[in-house]
Amino acid sequence: MNDKVLVTYASRAGSTAGVAEAIGKTLTESGIQVDVLPMQEVEDLAPYRAVVAGSAIRGRKWLPEAMEFLHDHQGELRQKPFAAFMVCITLSMKNAEQYREGLKDWTKPVYDMVRPVCEGYFAGALDFSKIPFSLNTLAMRLVALAGAWKEGDHCDWNAIRTWTESLLPLLHL
Fold this sequence. Notes:
alpha/beta, Rossmann fold, two-stranded antiparallel sheet, 6 helices
């Protein structure tokens, strides 16, 4: 095992991929070797000292491929420093703090498999042109029309950087 860190993600419309890239960039700027990969491309965790994994939230859950990744690698992830993050448009709402505890319930299945040393919760971007039409998307559009959230990039890049910097001692880096 070397000192390389894996930042891996499951994304639908690209926002979670962008957050993962920002995490990777911050770690790299701290002098750490980093691979940033979609979860479907990760086959082996042996080359990595630590893992940071994140998922977009759809239907109040981590994406299926993220849950599959955690299930397939849970034994290895329990042996390494592991941090988790999620990206959810709910966190862009004006009253988002009231939902933060509820979001932890959405990620409970993750934590039942692997206990992270740290958790990051971030607002993402909302671009309906990148989201396939479904009943869930229709409901999201109605909520957006009601003013609960707006299309656009709601990522707090400074918060993502600060959270990533806080990982360094937790991941033993």
